[in-house]
Amino acid sequence: MEFFRQRNDIPFMRHALKFNAVSTITFLLAVFFIVVRGLNFSVEFTGGTLVEVGYSEPPRLETVRHALATGGYPDAQAQNFGSGEILIRLPNREGLDTAQVSQHVLGMLQSLEGSEPQLRRVEFVGPQIGKELASDGAMALLLVVFGIIVYLALRFEWRFAVSTIVANLHDVVIILGFFAFFQWEFSLPVLAAVLAVLGYSVNESVIVFDRVRETFRKKRNMNTAQIIDHAITAMISRTVITHGSTLMMVLSMLIFGGEVLHYFALALTIGIIFGVYSSIFVASPMAMWLGTSREHFVKPKKEKQDEAVV
Amino acid sequence: MNRYPLWKNILIGLILLWGVIYTLPNFYGEVPAVQVSSAKATLRLDHAGASGQIEEALRGAGIAHTGLFTDANSLRFRFGSSEDQLRARDVIERSLNPDAQDPSYVVALNLLSASPNWLTSIHALPMYLGLDLRGGVHFLLQVDMPGALTKRLDSTAGDLRTLMRDRSVRHSGISREGNAIHLRFRDVEQRNAARSAIQNNTGDLQLVDRDDGPGDLRLIATLTAQAQQTMRDFAIRQNISTLHNRINELGVAEPVIQQQGADRIVVQLPGVQDVAKAKDILGRTATLEVRLVDDTPGALEAALAGNPPFGTEIYSDRDGTPLLVRRQVVLTGDRLVDAQPGFDGQTNEPAVHLSLDSAGSRIFRDVTRENVGKRMAILLIEKGKGEVVTAPVIRTEIGGGRVQISGRMTTTEANDVALLLRAGALAAPMEIIEERTVGPSLGADNIAKGFNSTLWGFIAIAVFMTVYYTLFGLVSSIALAANLMLLIALLSLLQATLTLPGIAAMALTLGMAIDANVLINERIREELRNGATPQAAIHAGYDRAFDTILDANITNLIAGIALLVFGSGPVRGFAVVHCLGILTSMFSAIMVSRMLINLIYGRQRKIAKLHLGQAPN
User: Fold this and answer.
1) Interface probe, candidates A195, A209, A213, A218, chain B, greatest B C-beta count within 10 A
2) Which of A97, A267, B122, B386 has the most CB atoms at less than 10 Å from its CB?
3) Which residues in chain A are closer than 8 Å to B281, comparing Cβ atoms?
4) Which residues contact B249 (CB under 8 A, 6 or more apart)?
């Protein structure tokens, strides 16, 4: 079987400007939503208590909310989670004996009428831990970006490094934009997914640029745009097959992984799709605008000159 | 040219065989077991003695165990059925702990891998499952170091007062202000005398002069950096050992109690569901009380007959001897700064040295002065029950806060008493700053979900690859399976903790690893299209794809390492598997698949067609 038999190069770069416009708009939209709506951080980052209980027959949420409000937790949030589970979130607040909150809440739920709740999980995160996790996450992101720039600059040249990083930060911002727009919960595993996507999409750009470099050396009669078109066309089959495969795995996680892996898999799905898009339509045109040309890849051959004898 | 030398084939074969062996234990599941560990910090588990005693007891009861495993702190016996396990637990309990009120050993139910002994003996163990997969409680405790420092400075201030008095140095006040102790003097001579007295007495203090005008000369003492460090280390160690003692009571099979960072302690209790009890035990502060013993003739007998004199109650010491103790508390454990075993300076008998803080010293001096010749009981009160740790006779008035308990003690007893006294109070208060509890049903669910995602994702990829690339696709799928196996083997060998994010990383790594094979297969197709012979196409395909694969994996590895460095908890579990998976995928996607392709095509002189699924030119 073969999906792609491209005899002629697809003129990706001819439409580069249009795609760049689209990317810029999506990017700005994502930034807008991140700024305006903000991310819905999980308790790991904000600090607080999360209690998940399972029921054979869950009580109505109003009952639970009422019980919590009258029991001294007016700021508690309760929501349905999966089938028959209820998730309760409590922010940290001054003067609350945090260590006892989960017991207290569980006791309260047990005293409600109806089926007996089963403790599924409790997460309590003190305020200082939340701050640390947030700053560690930011540090990890910086380290990845820095490491990749250094590696690409060494391996290729700075124009490629810059275009790759811009393209992939564009992906990261768009993932975050989705999370902000839909107010999906941004937890530690989601952060891990974002960073994994960063590594993975860079890999995509690397593969295209690798091919660009090779084509520059081989084809002497093409201009930069043609060379990029040629390289992308040559790799398009591999790009689609690889990402299709990775996507199958991620979708399998989305389908079978349950609530805990849900947002993790979702972040990966968005990241993979935009990763493909950005390496073709963001990174490559950018490398072109930055003025990549053959001279950057083909080392000038030193012609041997016989030294003149005086 | 498409042949690996024999040694290379053998090497790859051996690595795969290693992978099979170390993956095996994960398939055997678990069997019931009984775990025996020491219940007292002072009692070291005597492996040979205890196992002999247990084996004898089990033989006596007619229960056969199916394997004995030992590690530094515990003995584990495996049993054929949970019925045997329960009976064995009772038998062992009766045999090792004749006195149920005062158990010397913790006998707990546990699960052990059912893998055959030969696997266990080569250290092939199943993967270590994290709490989110097996259920249990995780706590992160923060030790209040500033609190410990304040406590230490308060007691040092008391020591300095005593020192000044002993050396007849006149001062106009000693007080703690923030993290420093201020000593005030009226004239320089006294201050110099004080300085040399302190310097001769201790090396832990840094002294600085400060003149706040005539008649207000100060000497400011702070703890040296080294002394502070020692104090912190001591506080952490002390708290960890106290936690160990307490958690032992819970009978948890494999508790993890570790220092994390400078001032944090991680406690993980797999399988524990009763969080309330666990928290209660962690947060409990056993209290020490010093009270006077009522030795009035006849009073004890009356009390035993159910008629204690007014203001007294009965406590037993550790041998069970009853003692009539006054209700009035002379001192509590808060006043105790340290307790160390040692020897009496004159008689060389084993002794326990206690240091009290300044307030405690004053009270102690007054009480001992008025009660020379009488007995004084030190009680450890835990879980509402009191026990007399020791009840020495007061020989003389004791001032200065340095107390020595000696006489009729062995070295072991001295150690024991010192430890109990110290365990009475945590060196520094602790606070729970993170808690994760996972119920057993959620743990099992998580395993199933993680397993299913990986399985179905893998099947989808394998089917697709085989349809799209036919034989080459099948080889890629086999290489992918080898990757999964090697990854599991590596995780089992390293005993890295597998969490749900770890399983997700496993799935993701597989999804990404197929990239290498796609690159290779596409490159071979391309070479064929450009007119290369099949053999040359295979060679060039693998060769040229290698650089690209390396590049791609290095960027992935950079992301993985950043996660490993800065990640904590779930992210770290993800990162470990991700990084290891990238390494195993490099090996299997390139070496294993190449070996298979070589074995299939390498020996044919002329190949009509490669089974790569490409459309005819």
Assistant:
1) A195
2) A267
3) none
4) B39, B106, B281
